[in-house]
Amino acid sequence: MKKLTVFLLLGFLILSLSGCAAYDKMLAGAFSPPEVISVSPAANQTNVALNTKVKVAFNEAMDALSFNPNTFKLYSPSGRVQGNVHYNTNSITNNIAVFTPNEPLSPNTEYIAELTSGIKTNLKLHIKEYKWKFTTGK
User: Fold this and answer.
1) pLDDT range class, residue 24, cuts 50, 70, 90
2) Rounded to an integer, what distance in angstroms lies between the CA atom of residue 24 and that of residue 17?
3) Cβ neighbours of residue 30 closer than 8 Å, sequence gap 6 or more
4) Are 131 and 114 in contact (CB under 8 A)?
5) Phi then psi for 54, rounded to 5 degrees?
6) Is 60 exceeded by the pLDDT of residue 15?
7) Cα dist from 95 to 3, 40, 92, whole Å
8) Could you tell me if 57 and 71 are in contact, meaning their C-beta atoms sit under 8 angstroms apart?
9) Tens-place pLDDT, residues 47-97
């Protein structure tokens, strides 16, 4: 009898929540790839300072170990820009990763920033590859 009661209660709970928009959103979010919610410099921004650090914010907490120069890249017309990548594991509310170039960026140059699918959440869900460009000033 106890098993039947538990089964019926569990079934009722599932049916009750199945039409609940908040529940549906929670389930979708739990199994959806993470998303980039902002980048800095902004996509297609011009006159970017030469000492700029490239930043990206995500909609959820990420796996800090998945960030490195092979997953967060920056390119100039002359090739790949060398730098360091850092994700603050204490950035619970903002989830920001930062690429810091080893040297100042070149003036009047278009750069392409790239995030690879090697970046993932703490739940091991990988991002979709993401690219954007910006141009430095003088």
Assistant:
1) very low
2) 8
3) 123
4) yes
5) -90, 125
6) no
7) 44, 13, 6
8) no
9) 999 999 999 999 988 999 999 999 999 999 999 999 999 998 765 567 999
**Secondary structure letter of residue 65 according to DSSP:** G
Phi-psi region at 47: left, alpha or beta (left = phi > 0; alpha = psi -120 to 50) = left
Both structure tokens of 116: 């690879």
Place of tokens 């039947």: 4
Exposed e or buried b per residue across 74-103, where buried means at least 16 C-beta atoms within 10 angstroms of its C-beta: beeeeeebebebbbeeebeeebbbbbebee
pLDDT at residue 105 greater than cutoff 80: yes
- Given a cut of 50, whether residue 115 has pLDDT beyond it is yes
Using the CB atoms, write b or e for 21-30: b if 16+ within 10 Å: eeeeeeeeee
Is 58 buried (19+), middle (13-18) or exposed (0-12) by CB count in 10 A? buried
Give the C-alpha separation, 34 to 16, whole Å: 28
Helix axes 21-30, 2-18, angle to 10 degrees: 90
Q: Is the pLDDT of residue 23 over 50?
A: no
